[in-house]
Specification:
Keywords: Membrane, Transmembrane, Transmembrane helix. The chain has a single domain, classed as Four Helix Bundle (Hemerythrin (Met), subunit A), CATH 1.20.120. The chain contains 7 helices and no strands. It is an all-alpha fold.
Amino acid sequence: MIVRGSSPMTELEKIFLTSAVTICGGLLVYVVGQLLSKFLIEPTHELKKTIGEVRFNLAFYAPIIHTPISRNPERSQEAYEALMKSSCDLLARVNAIPLYSNLSSFSRGFLPSKEAIVESAVHLRRLSTYVHETDSKANDSLDTIAKQVARIEKNLGLELLE
């Protein structure tokens, strides 16, 4: 019986080993990249798009939100639905990102904190309750409405509109 010691690898064995390690490394990089993409990058992008939609809704429905005289039932209902949808979308998107609190603190201002997003969602829901008011109560609410909008803009890092 011949016992073979640790003999050097042949060139063919080196080629196969190098190929196998390269393929395994490439596969690992691909899988990690896909996981990062699906669980962090894409949900974060969706959240940023939702924040953009909040800006759009606050600007597009500004006459309904800030001017009671321009309110009518149809437009008020549209504004109500848009604000409620924005509120729900913010909550859904932020909760879809694993470890969002860590990610937002690591992003150095690129992403608002989870608390700021949740607070903004609450303010959007509150704001939606005012858009159907048309009487003197609506005029009394204008200061509250302006404060709610300003708080949403501050929390989400949106530029103030004039």
